[in-house]
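DM from R.C. (forwarded with permission)

"hey, sorry to bug you on a friday — could you get me a structure for this? deadline for the figure draft is monday and I only need the backbone to look sensible"
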Amino acid sequence: MLATWSFAVAMTNCAGLTTNAFFLAMLCAQEPNTLRQRLREFYYSKHDKKGDQRQEIIVRGCFAPLLRWILTLWQAKSLALALDATTLDSRFVVLAISVIYRGSALPVAWSILAAGRKGRWKSHWLALLTQLQPAIPSTMKVIVLADRGLYARWLYTKIQKLGWHPFLRISLRAKFLPQGSHKWVWLKTLARKRGQIYRLAGTAFRTPNSRLPCTLLSCWEAAHTEPWLIITDLAPTAAEPAWYGLRAWIEQGFKGIKRGGWSWHYTRMTDPKRAERMWLVLAVASVWTISLGGELEAADEKETNEPLTNICTLPFDLNYSPRRLIRIQRLGRLFLLALLVAGKGIPIPHYLIPEPWPCGPPGKPRPSGKRKMTKNKKVYP
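My reply, with the result:
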């Protein structure tokens, strides 16, 4: 049912129960109500199903296998994970961990909570990180990115205990003690000039219970209203402030699940546990289409020395611009539709080839999505 659900979502570009039930009914020559009930029972708890032998999907048990699937396709020795939260109206808060990939994000772990309820998120983040650890080889370099709203000492230390590298943004309202110095300085005094980059080893936060030996990375680009201040356990010479720009791609991942892709924002669900099971469907559909789009994009780039012989290519050259004109989730779905219409069958992803991490000043990120029309050029949204 997971395969059936995710295939239907990718084909209809919609997470709606009724839409996918009618699509599958036409495809399988069955009654729409029959398919509708089967799809609905996928995200039901066992107590909401009829019969004594019914079971339910344990979503958190799927996180490590989902990440392992991604890593079997991964063609790099480093991995960037991003943590962030997104909301759905006043119903849900989604705490998500995603693999950053080519201007988008592959969701690999999540916890959906009812919005407006009091409570800390600490236990949820710790559980999600712990569940992913068995899937990642110890030899792989992993950085974990999070915005300043999620920074906490316990998060920093938890990432270290898992053998990964925290890459967390912090606010300006703190002090830092550079290595070899006896004077604490305000962080805002270290980032006073635009265009400058700092890499300093030392101790962050003056309060004894909050002190943290770390590397401080600071940069302030002219286009930004304020600087980035990032702390990590990597050596100053082994870290680039520009890596933090990868964190923004998780926003594109959320957009692909909601308004820019599967239209999950139209859901009528009110039960967070049902929504968590539905996200498993959307995550599988996202991994499938994003990996297909990434293969197409990578096959046209000169950064790959050998051709991707296993990919089913179409009889034309896409001639990619250095600027990403279309989100790779949409590109992968278009590729899927084109192959089906051409009678070439359902494509299976073979590679996930990430772009090199940025180095030097952050500059402008490679955009994803629409671009303004330029003279004598056609740009397709």
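R.C.: lifesaver. The longest helix spans residues 272-299.
me: no worries. Residues 303-316, 363-381 have pLDDT under 50 and may be disordered.
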